[in-house]
Amino acid sequence: MVLLQLDPFLNELTSMFEKSKEKGSVWVTLKRSSLKSKLQKRKLSSSGESIEYRCLIRATDAKKTISTSVGAKDHQRFQASYATILKAHMTALKKRERKDRKKSTEAKKKETSTSKPKKL
């Protein structure tokens, strides 16, 4: 996993979306993180210092994983840039065919009822 600055992360995320336009997927996860170990967190909390939490963003296309950390100051700018990237690549979204569960379960019930021999 590569921890990038905000702008290189957005550029790399754009290239990931471009590469996966025809085939593939990109997964993006957001998580609250302080980027400190549990021991460091305990020391800070015991001394009365506040812990600054950041947003850890990870993106992967199954071949490459990138990540960045966004603070409260840059969060609005990141959200705007991320929304722009998503809007630009909306055409690459593919609609999955959904199986109708009711129809499949009804068909299975009919199948099992006709295949069972009747009791005398």
UniProtKB/TrEMBL annotation:
The name of this protein is: Signal recognition particle 14 kDa protein
Localization in the cell: Cytoplasm
> Where along the chain is composition biased (Basic and acidic residues)?
103-113
Q: How does it assemble?
A: Heterodimer with SRP9; binds RNA as heterodimer. Component of a signal recognition particle (SRP) complex that consists of a 7SL RNA molecule of 300 nucleotides and six protein subunits: SRP72, SRP68, SRP54, SRP19, SRP14 and SRP9.
Which key words tag this protein in UniProt? Cytoplasm, Ribonucleoprotein, RNA-binding, Signal recognition particle
- Chief site of localization: cytoplasm
Record Gene3D superfamilies: Signal recognition particle alu RNA binding heterodimer, srp9/1
GO annotation, biological process: SRP-dependent cotranslational protein targeting to membrane
Q: Name one Pfam family in it.
A: SRP14
